[in-house]
Amino acid sequence: MNVLEIDGLTVALPAGRAARPLLSDVSLHVAQGEVVGLVGESGSGKSLTCRAALGALPPRASAEGSVRTVGDDVFALSARALRRLRSEKVGLVPQDPRAAVNPLYRVGDYLVEAVRAAGVPQAEARARAVTLLGDVGIREPERALRCWPHEFSGGMLQRVAIAGALAGRPALLLADEPTTALDVTIQAEVLSILLDITAQRSAGLLLVTHDLELAAAVCDRVYVMYAGRIIEAQPAASLFASPRHPYTAGLLHATPSLAGPVGRLEAVPGRPLGLDEAVPGCSFSARCPHVRPTCTEVVPDLVSQPGAGGIAVACLRADELRDELRRSGPGRADPDHPVLEEQPA
Ligand SMILES: Nc1ncnc2c1ncn2[C@@H]1O[C@H](COP(=O)(O)OP(=O)(O)O)[C@@H](O)[C@H]1O
Ligand SMILES: [Mg+2]
Known about the structure:
By secondary structure, the protein is an alpha/beta fold. The chain is built from 12 helices and 12 strands.
């Protein structure tokens, strides 16, 4: 069963506000029990895709296509049903827990409120909050409930936010860059809690990150986004060795080695396409080392590749480039030791 199913989603601002849609023909799904990565540079449309899953689009934006989240058609829901979807069926793990957890309330008040919003009666809410804190590995949960957010480190507060996201026993977790606001040293720890919890509850997890290597290491499947489009979809196991889109290959090639220095590399020369820029052909053509004249004329469809494996790529030259883009060198990242990089400014 798919806990998230987005089909042909195009989201556009009113005429004159942008030269291209914010999202163009985005299709993706997350099955129950699956960890799915959504990767792309800043501004590619990852957060908007998450918001669409919750039925929350920018004001006055128009949408075509369909979004089914845990069985609900989000664009057809009443305001009340949408609230239920957001508080009970989907868990949203924030990017920055300090921005998500109100500093003026005790941790317990934050959690109890989340549990209450998910329909748990007042009498049971506190006990449930204690259980949730235990689930995310917080020792002495009773004491933690009485703490203030500022008494917690970023990593501990992100655990609290994850506990809050779990309040309604969600079938789908949306984690939008869940570790980029945290210290590098605790990023892996928080990520592993999130992965453990997803597995224990056989929920689906959509993990949004700008870090393709991380996604390839921990996800079952990965979608790569560029300028509002999905340009590649592939099981993580094969993606790392055989990226099929030049953009994906560029992101992976820029990583010198898994054991190499940790630092910020300019992944792909050039910069992403802005919202005020529309190009006639492939939106990556201006940065693509494999560009041909047709690439600047024809928008490539996302085409499923022959054979099993669920690989799809949006590149006119996908077949010709197949062998050239295959990676030699280090194999797939060790899933137990994902390499984590610092968030770019
Ligand atoms: N509420 C909004 N109104 C207008 N434009 C928006 C809004 N939210 C996002 N955008 C634009 O949509 C594009 C995709 O944004 P976003 O999904 O936040 O990217 P990402 O999460 O991949 O960094 C960006 O160009 C951003 O400026
Ligand atoms: Mg974002």
